[in-house]
Request: fold
Amino acid sequence: MQLRLQKCKTSDLELLSKISTQTFSDAFAKDNNPIDFKSYTDLAFSKNTLLDQINNPYISFYFVYRGEDLVGYFKLNENEAQTDGKLKEAIELERIYVLGDFQNLGIGKWMLNEVKKKGKNKRKKFLWLGVWEENTKAIKFYQTHGFSKFGTHPYIVGNDKQTDWMMRFDFKE
Reply:
């Protein structure tokens, strides 16, 4: 399986909005109030929001391709673009998603390894992420790949205040 990364540019805005909405909806729509969920996705994945983020020098989106097929994407935040902590020695993995047709093929593991390489190459001390406390499958995945819980923070979906576990992976010197 040949996978490759492509950093997103402003010309990718339409595709980024589409894959963001699709993967988030596939993962979480069934577990949320439809009105709150739509309110969240309409804002978080709007072209205006995503354009602002693509143009932020501390935010990076990457598409993942298998051959010519777009199979997933991830989002990294540095410095003040992080959703919590905002430590210069850390990098946040805010989003990592694989399209449904391509799950259970090892793509998520490959993506996470690429994220770790990027963090290490940027000389960060640790990589962190937030994962919904009820997403036990994802929590187990991250634990299997060396992450440990170090706190919690709120994650707001519409008017629904949910709790994310904050998990971190420490880079070895």
